[in-house]
Design a protein that fits this description.
Rossmann fold, single chain, six-stranded antiparallel beta sheet, 30% helix, 27% strand, 10 helices
Length: 307
């Protein structure tokens, strides 16, 4: 998959794509249904925005994203997207009228042949344009527009909001049923305090800055090492939270991979949250913590070996 972070001066070979457009946070079943409607009518593309428009307009609001840009791109590649147009969302783009966006970005810039959007899609300055406006503008500027119906799960519309709530409640399997895949946290392994190594449980530490925070606690996880000499799939247990045994800390994700040896610093991991095991706890001392960690790993291994 090729990733383009602008819409001007693109390789002529990228023109003529059939694209789905949206933020696609989580790439859930509803998003996939929109994207699949664009298949078979030219090179398959996706238009999305970075940062998320909500981040641009409310930069100090609580973190809400289910995926960072890296995780979203990886998921889109897995479902067959060939061209990802990750447009920079800034004051210039936000200020375009619906007509100017359709003409300058979609028609002249990207040269799309077909566009698919969800029924609730809004665009242009002040969100003044809607999906039906796109159909009218598409006829004027030379691209066809398909409006996708909203997708339901168990009688309710699938939404990123519902998925966030499931994760906040410690229900990763319910989130996965709406996503169509495990909820994953992806990114680079960073240096931590190395306490896990001293305790016999070396962990891969990852930042969760900018992401919606699932319920703090311990999880059974599946892990993909995406880069480096030890690429592959593993299972393990992960602690997400602030580590109350050791004072005040910035929330992060610490993953212990079973049956793994090696150095993962600087490599990129994708951690799938499978089951919530227990909340964060503060123990009277290290022996209690280590006993609980052993029990957590045993429980996680038993769960993951059944998948």
């Amino acid at each position: 998959m090729r990733i383009h972070q602008h819409w001007l001066g693109l390789d002529p070979a990228t023109r003529g794509a059939s694209v789905a457009m949206g933020n696609f946070d989580g790439v859930h079943k509803g998003h996939v249904a929109v994207i699949k409607l664009a298949q078979g009518q030219g090179p398959l593309g996706v238009i999305t925005f970075e940062p998320h428009p909500r981040q641009f307009f409310a930069p100090n609001a609580p973190s809400f994203r289910l995926m960072n840009a890296e995780a979203r791109a990886n998921r889109l590649a897995k479902i067959g997207v060939e061209q990802l147009f990750e447009l920079p969302f800034d004051a210039s783009l936000a200020g375009l009228s619906p007509e100017a966006f359709a003409r300058e970005v979609l028609a002249d810039g990207l040269g799309i042949s077909h566009l698919v959007v969800g029924a609730d899609f809004c665009f242009g300055k002040g969100r003044s344009g809607n999906a039906h406006d796109l159909q009218v503008l598409g006829e004027r500027f030379g691209f066809r527009v398909t409006i996708a119906d909203l997708v339901e799960h168990q009688g309710r519309e699938i939404s990123s909001t519902a998925i966030r709530q499931a994760l906040s409640d410690g229900r990763p399997r319910d989130a996965a049923s709406m996503l169509g895949h495990w909820h994953r946290i992806e990114g680079e392994v960073i240096h931590g305090e190395k306490r896990g190594r001293d305790l016999g449980y070396p962990t891969a530490n990852m930042s969760i800055d900018g992401l919606h925070l699932p319920k703090f606690g311990v999880y059974a996880v599946k892990a993909d090492v995406l880069t480096g000499p030890q690429t592959g799939s593993y299972i393990g247990a992960a602690s997400l939270g602030v580590r109350p045994m050791f004072g005040e800390n910035v929330p992060n994700l610490e993953t212990f991979l079973f049956d793994f040896t090696g150095d993962l610093y600087g490599q990129h991991l994708s951690i799938a949250m499978v089951d919530y095991l227990r909340p964060e706890m503060k123990f009277d001392g290290l022996p209690g913590l280590m006993d609980q960690m052993a029990a957590d790993c045993e429980q996680a291994r038993a769960i993951l070996q059944t998948l």
